[in-house]
Amino acid sequence: MSKLLPPVLCVVGARPNFMKMAPILEAFARAEPAIPATLVHTGQHYDVAMNEQHFAALGLPKPDISLEVGSGSHAKQTAAVMEHFEPVLDEVQPAAVLVVGDVNSTLACTLVASKKGVPVIHVEAGLRSYDRTMPEEINRVLTDQIADLLFTTEAKAEDNLAREGVPAERVRFVGNVMIDSVHRNREKAVSAAQTLAALDVDPAKPWGLVTLHRPSNVDDAAVLANIVGTLNEAAERLPLVFPVHPRTRARMSHVAAPRTTYGSAGTAAPVGAVSDRESARSALQEPPEGTAPGAVSRSEAAPTGATNLHLLDPVDYLTMLGLLQSATLVITDSGGLQEETTALGIPCLTVRENTERPITIEQGTNTLVGTDRATILAAVDNILTTGGKQGRIPEYWDGQTAERIATELNRWLGRSG
């Protein structure tokens, strides 16, 4: 790596960024010529244990620079990242700033770089839900308008950018770098059987994986209570394993879900179901001192006598990947899981009214079910009866996206033909 070449400043701010950045940094090191990189972690996700889990699991080096911004409102967090990132640009003098995804750090670092005259590269550009109530949508739109080089995951993203007036010469269709991480880590993933054993869940029988973290689902007490009640009822059909996101953990500890399932009026919830404030708080309490991050024990997974809705602490990427590739179905509001389930051929039910990743519906295994109880349960029943939606792997979701990014970036920087 030549010291004469200024580095590309690569920014991670939230957990999904880690999975996308790991293969990119590896590809940069293998490129001809190699692309020097400096890794900056803004610290937008403030759970230190989870950050350390993800860096270790993905083989990422420790960040060269940590901003340690932490949590806060969207405005405070974005402003804090901008304030802390500016002196980094002054010190490093990079060839460009590379940002991924749609978190607050993505937009904040883009704004600072642009104002300082530093080129911006956006990985995962052009995705649109057309829902301006989503903070991520605002981050995506503004970042794409500012970025100098935009790497897209699907053809429809190129169409979105063209409609918004982004010149075609700034756009490169390279595929989905998140799927690179799936390919490179599948064999290293923690066996689902190992995780499920602590929950008394038989991996040979149907079971489902659940994640929830979107503000639209967890910030409204009534919506969250409805979803938890629906999950309790779905868990009567098959065991559900629910690694609880910190955001959801905080909200569930203050939500009293209905004490009945959403079957017929007056039908009592199963004994121990996670359907009232105290049981939710009990299930989501901090693990005992000395417990490894992501470790699963029966006492932590769910209250004594609980139904088949098994709550556990957040797990690292390799544990989640092991669960994901072995599940019968996935119920989620995560954009990344919509993509990963399509790549793995696992039926996915997305608890949202829209998605910025329509290719997972049009070509993949994803189905939008919203938050309606009957719709979710009918979709679960359909998967258990028919095996669910059959999809195909989208173009360039082949595990080689990071290599294409490195090749295109070297050309763009004038470092190769």
Automatic annotation (TrEMBL):
The keyword Nucleotide-binding does not apply. It comes from the Bacteria. GO terms for molecular function: isomerase activity. Residues 31-409 form the UDP-N-acetylglucosamine 2-epimerase domain. Residues 252-301 are annotated as: Disordered. InterPro entries: UDP_GlcNAc_Epimerase_2_dom, WecB-like. Gene3D superfamilies: Glycogen Phosphorylase B. Keywords: Isomerase. PANTHER family: UDP-N-ACETYLGLUCOSAMINE 2-EPIMERASE. Belongs to the UDP-N-acetylglucosamine 2-epimerase family. This is UDP-N-acetylglucosamine 2-epimerase (Non-hydrolyzing).
